[in-house]
Design brief:
Blueprint lengths: L2 E5 L8 H11 L3 E7 L11 H10 L4 E6 L3 H10 L4 E5 L7 H6 L5 E5 L18 E4 L14 H14 L6 E4 L7 H7 L3 E4 L1 H4 L4 H9 L2
Parallel strand pairs: 1-2, 1-8, 2-3, 3-4, 4-5, 5-6, 6-7, 7-8
Helix pairs in contact: 1-8
Length: about 210
């Protein structure tokens, strides 16, 4: 069964507690925190203080997706304020990035932009808690799903199986009730949904449709 991770970037922050409660009641499995620094991506979102506040509002897993240029510098702040898992971008990494992040004692996943070669992460797959494939270019919510992502999911799934691993694949960007079936069938384990959930009048219906229930 696939997992539904709700991206809070698109929720109503003036009603954050209510939004999180409503998402929980609708059946989401985790919350996805899109952290933007205005450098690696053009927008700025939120930082550790918001993460700390969200931690008081839910017991569900919080995953901090660091769309930032220096994940090693800032990841400890997110780990300390309640993030259960840290996701960094391979595009800003060097050979020391993953070892340093693993020192935090938290699960560490890696994220790839749509035009990043999948092979760049194959050597480090055994150390990862998950691989996040972006199905849009990061920085803005509400973008359309890039169809070639389906081939990338399938190819990554084959590599994970060849290495005899159980690393989950997550997908973020343009995932909604219309695109979710293809994402599931391609082999994704975690579907990250933002605008399709929080712009809906029926959160539970969106969750069911995305999960294929």
């Amino acid at each position: 069964m696939v997992e539904f991770s709700a991206s809070i970037l698109n929720c109503d922050f003036t009603r954050l507690g209510e939004e999180i409660k409503a998402a929980e009641e609708a059946g989401v499995n985790a919350f996805h925190l899109d952290v933007m620094d205005g450098h690696f991506v053009p927008n700025i979102s939120f930082g550790p203080p918001v993460t700390k506040h969200i931690r008081t509002l839910t017991r569900l897993p919080l995953r901090a997706h660091l769309m930032i240029s220096d994940p090693v510098k800032y990841a400890p702040d997110f780990a300390e304020t309640g993030a259960d898992e840290i996701l960094y971008h391979i595009e800003v990494a060097d050979e020391e990035t993953l070892p340093k992040l693993l020192e935090l004692g938290k699960p560490i996943g890696v994220t790839l932009n749509p035009d990043t070669d999948l092979r760049s992460i194959y050597p480090i797959l055994p150390q990862l808690s998950q691989v996040l494939l972006m199905s849009v270019f990061p920085g803005f919510g509400g973008q359309k799903f890039i169809p070639k992502t389906l081939f990338r999911i399938s190819n990554l799934r084959r590599e994970i199986e060849m290495q005899k691993l159980s690393v989950p694949i997550s997908v973020d960007g343009g995932v909604n009730p219309d695109t979710a079936e293809g994402v599931r069938e391609a082999g994704a384990d975690i579907l990250i949904v933002g605008s399709a959930l929080f712009s809906s009048d029926d959160y539970a219906g969106v969750v069911r449709a995305v999960k294929g229930e």
